[in-house]
Write a structure and sequence with these properties.
By secondary structure, the chain is an all-alpha fold. The chain is about 85% helix and about 0% strand.
Length: about 110
């Protein structure tokens, strides 16, 4: 079981390490779509014979999914910015290990 989890971890890091927006953006858009569907269903229930907006749990579920979707999109955007900053600093030779004394840089490897 541990080998399978290790292989999944390696696959995840190899696929999404340089493009985190692809993963977090997909999850965020999926959550926002689910939230929109839940809110549309709550509104449809309000105008039909179903419960009102305040007594319907779909309203709260839809709003929660929308907020979580926005947070996942933001997390992906921050990860994308961090990845680009790190890759540019690495190209210029300005990484954290380059600024450390040699004893610390060797221990970090």
């Amino acid at each position: 079981m541990r080998v399978i989890l290790d292989l999944l971890t390696v696959k995840f890091l190899a696929s999404y390490q340089t493009r985190p927006m692809h993963l977090f953006g997909l999850v965020g858009l999926g959550l926002m779509f689910a939230g929109t569907v839940a809110l549309a269903a709550a509104v449809a229930m309000k105008y039909t014979s179903g419960p009102g907006m305040t007594s319907n749990p779909l309203t709260l579920l839809g709003l929660l999914a929308e907020v979580c979707g926005v947070q996942f999109l933001s997390l992906g955007l921050m990860g994308e910015v961090m990845t680009r900053v790190y890759s540019r600093a690495r190209e210029n030779g300005r990484t954290a290990s380059a600024r450390l004394p040699k004893a610390y840089a060797i221990a970090a490897c």
